[in-house]
Amino acid sequence: MAVALRMALGAQRGAVIWMVLRRVILLAAVGLAISVPAALIAFRLVKSFLFETEPNNPGTLALAGVVLLGAAILAGYAPARRASRIDPLAALRHE
Fold first, then answer.
1. In a 10 Å sphere around its CB, with 0-12 CB exposed, 13-18 middle and 19+ buried, how is residue 81 labelled?
2. Domain count of the fold of the chain
3. What does each C-alpha distance from 48 to 1, 6, 30, 45 come to in angstroms?
4. Contact, 72 vs 25, CB < 8 A?
5. Angle, CA 75 vertex, CA 70 and CA 79 arms, to 5°
6. For tag attachment on the chain, is the N or C end more exposed, with fewer CB atoms within 10 Å?
């Protein structure tokens, strides 16, 4: 509804895509903020599964964060692009 309302009021496609992607990035950042400390705390449990790397290796944690953010952005871009192409009047009538 918010997307249709913004489009009806004249929002540009780029602004709508950025609005959706901002939410995706925020959720991914919150997930990282929760999971990185949890991974550092639970490193003894996973230590036996890791070969030739330390569980608290900053490079490994940074790479995992970059991969997570990249996957989140890719997963959020398609719905954001689809949301920016809706007809605002039809969406408002549907609601």
1. middle
2. 1
3. 49, 51, 28, 7
4. yes
5. 140
6. C
Cα→Cα distances 53→6, 32, 37, 38, 61, Å: 48, 20, 18, 18, 11
Task: Kindly report whether the global pTM for this prediction surpasses the value 0.85.
Answer: no
What CA–CA distance (Å, rounded) separates 62 from 65?
5
Determine the Cα–Cα distance for residues 84 and 71; give it in Å rounded to an integer. 20
Check if the beta carbon of residue 68 is closer than 8 Å to that of residue 31.
Answer: yes
Task: Write down the residue that tokens 């599964």 correspond to.
Answer: 49
Are 86 and 7 in contact by the 8 Å Cβ rule? The answer is: yes
> Residue 76 is part of which domain span?
2-94
The percentage of the chain sitting over the pLDDT mark of 70, rounded to a whole number, equals: 93
